[in-house]
């Protein structure tokens, strides 16, 4: 649960000794990084020589091929794009399409994010510029995902692919064991739970306790609406 989980560090000149040494330490600490290099293969070789596994580099490192005098390459390094910027909306479309063939309609539980609501602000003011800068693309994807679900629920009941839905909007993710169910706060769009971070483990725990262990029947207060959660 370190601050490194909350940001992306951009590296220029990463195949050189000093910057490379810093990059290696950052990756080993679990910090998300981006690096602008002229020869990505050379960088990957250097990282392997220093004990970095392909799993770590695949999960934590975004490599941009280019020159530091190229402003577009520098901009891409400063704000790396996702490999699949529409993964959430594509996944929900596919799930809904598959559900149309089911005899019993399921309840769809989707993990979204704070910072998407058009109603009351659900994130600390200090996080608003960070959300715009660091999460603009994934937020755009999740916004479309939510709209797809909302549009599905507007259809006549007989035409819907799902019986109902639940949207979970966590605050910024961090790693670590978490603080447990008792430390997790939740809220509605009208009265959101506002906080800075929540561990992925706590998100999974909250979903299990409130949307899996507690049956998603008509008396479940978290079904049929978005819920913000934070720790």
Automatic annotation (TrEMBL):
Annotated SUPFAM superfamilies: NAD(P)-binding Rossmann-fold domains (SSF51735)
Family: Belongs to the avfA family.
Molecular function GO terms recorded: biliverdin reductase [NAD(P)H] activity; riboflavin reductase (NADPH) activity
Keyword Transmembrane helix: yes
Domain NAD(P)-binding per the UniProt entry, residue ranges: 13-211
Signal peptide positions on this chain: none
Keyword Hydrolase appears in the UniProt entry: no
Protein name: NAD(P)-binding domain-containing protein
Matching InterPro entries: NAD(P)-bd_dom (IPR016040), NAD(P)-bd_dom_sf (IPR036291), Polyketide_Oxido-like (IPR051606)
Keywords tagged on the record: Membrane, Transmembrane, Transmembrane helix
Transmembrane segments: 6-27
